[in-house]
Amino acid sequence: MRAELAAGLLAPQASASPKFLYDALGSKLFEAICELPEYYPTRTEAAIFDAHLYDMARTIGRGTTLIDLGAGNCAKAARMFLMLQPLQYVPVDISVDFLRSAVDGLRQQFPQIRMTGIGMDFSTEMALPSAVRREKRLFFYPGSSIGNFTPEQAAALLGRIREACQGDGGLLIGVDLVKDKAILDAAYDDGLGVTAAFNLNMLRHVNGLLDADFDVRDWRHAAFYNEAASRIEMHLEARRDLTVRWTGGERRFAEGERIHTENSYKYTRQGFLQMLERAGFGAARTWTDEQGWFLVCHARVV
Questions:
Q1: pLDDT at 57 over 90
Q2: What's the mean per-residue pLDDT of the chain?
Q3: pLDDT value at position 212?
């Protein structure tokens, strides 16, 4: 991870993967973002699950191996336990301490479900240990996190999920849809500044990983919808000319220069279904909200 971070910071357009937003504090800040009135994805997706969970469960069937990618506090998957009755729950997250705390709590509430937590960066590999059942794997990827990847990277990730599914597996995924720019801009640049704190916290995380000397006070949050690319972009922008140093390297940033920290691509329903088909999934069922802002999709291996 240190090599990846250093390479990103030294690139002509400095960047850092959004996975580095999620240390323990970053994970808690993201939980707070999900409570903001501007941040529609979480509550819109939750409303879709509330309205259609019975239909989803009937489509999926019981007794799955529920593999929760980017599980965080595991709350989204836990809401489905009673309806889906998975035989095994496998939460996967890069923030291990945060994940461990969440799983410990769930084990007490659902002792009948075998739980196997995995600390892993699934953006680059999908190497599941032998402790994960091979039968009836259901990969669960909610929250429109697929949008953090470029379309090419998203297609590759879906391909890795397809390979890990086995013949009777499937995918249940949340996807944010294209909508008005003003709604999107507000969702990623809230009035309270919680998203700004979430983005700036990455610098503290990078300091710990690289032994760097970023000063949060030297940077500001910048987020906007790039209509041509159909994506939200988040950046950290230098407030002044400065030099950042870390073990083995340094970089000078001019005032106004940016570090690109996150993309969130927005899809059309048809465009995303076509991507699933190319990855080897079919028999898709979709559910959406009345405004057509968000999509939940289940697809099977074909």
A1: yes
A2: 95
A3: 97
Cα end-to-end span (Å), the chain: 35
- DSSP assignment of the chain equals -HHHHHHHHHSSS-B--GGGG-SHHHHHHHHHHTTSTT-HHHHHHHHHHHHHHHHHHHHH-SS-EEEEET-TTSHHHHTTHHHH--SEEEEEES-HHHHHHHHHHHHHH-TTSEE--EE--TTT-----TTS--TTEEEEE-TTGGGGS-HHHHHHHHHHHHHHH-TT-EEEEEEEBP--HHHHHHHTS-TT-HHHHHHHHHHHHHHHHHT----GGGEEEEEEEETTTTEEEEEEEESS-EEEEETTEEEEE-TT-EEEEEEEE-B-HHHHHHHHHHHTEEEEEEEE-TTS-EEEEEEEE-
Mean pLDDT of 186-204: 98
Query: Per-residue pLDDT tens for 81-112?
Result: 999 999 999 999 988 888 898 999 999 999 99
Confidence of residue 269 (pLDDT cuts 50, 70, 90): very high
Nearest to 19, CA basis, from 205, 177, 188: 205
